[in-house]
Amino acid sequence: MKKFIMYGAGNIGRGFIGQTFSNAGYKVGFIDINQEVISRLNQDKSYPVNVVTSEENKELIVQNVYGIDGKDVELVSNEIASCDMMATAIGVNVLKFIAKPIALGIKKRYENGGRTLDIIICENLIGADEFLKGLIKAELPELSDYIDNKVGFIEASIGRMVPVMTEEKKQGNPLRVYVEPYNVLPVDKNAFKGGIDKNVTNLYPFSPFNLFIQRKLFMHNMSHALCAYMGFLRDYEFIYETVADYDVKFVALRALMSSALAISKENGVEIEGLVMHADNLLYRFQNTALADTVARVGKDTKRKLSSSDRLIGALKLCEKHGVNALYLCIGIAGGLLFNPDGDESSAEVSNFVKINGVEKTLETYSDYTGKYVSVIKDVYNELKDGASLKDVIKMIEEINGKEIIV
Question: Cis peptide before 208, with omega less than 30 degrees from 0?
């Protein structure tokens, strides 16, 4: 039986990637430092995945799995040295900490004959492939050529939504995870070094892959965050409540259309598929069974309003291609006001803008000084002073109506 190593036994690791490769006939080893999860994986050799919609809850059992203690670097490197393929779903900020054990595993592979290794990188980061490759090369400068030729760093677009699991949802099993039905895994076709396993039926190899990276970040992540920021201002707890609010849904859809047009122009593809994807996203956000919260989805605006991330990145892409980005400005302004309890990152941004103003905040946190600064400032002030979203939409429509369309 082939072996797949999943670095990260969190909700995406168990609820999407691990399940995908287990279903394809692999034995799946999960690396994590959560001892409760690792012990239970080794005890049960399986775990439940609940595929949920607003109408249905279907339990599936993922088989042939085991746990690997992430603190045992020697064990981790041995598992990587002997696997057929691996993936990471650990969080962008943690990649620097796992580069060394991955590098040790690669070194052992080299010493044992130099088999290829493909690493699927399931992180929300544009350029995640080169980022992880650079970290590993820094650990193994003597094997630079081998890494270039034999190690595939494969970007992936993680579209499946997996909520934070409450104790109630776990039903006494720390391994249980809820997921939505969507299970397509787009990956960079050109990055594989060892070939693509056609038995992994929901793997979707595509090239050039930049289209899917932008679609995930500037459509899925962007609209998700926008809904969270609008929901916070309207005192909603769950994302499905925000999308049921037609004012929020209208703003999200208009922002999605802007991103779709910019992505279409950037990649030279027809816009029809992107428009269909936008409609599908807003439908999926309404899944009440996921019960994803406004606070979780919007969390960490310091990162989510950064220069190339979901909202500012989409805005800049629109500017690059001359696409109207006015509705993205509403999302960005909402992000500047987002400040739920316990979110230190968002509190930092929210407090900074109160003291220093919108222009300075966008320059400092978003590296943005473009033509939409004044619009974001006006929307921010309106929202801060308690204006309704209908009034803000009216203001944006008036600005939009002054554009001369030939």
Answer: yes
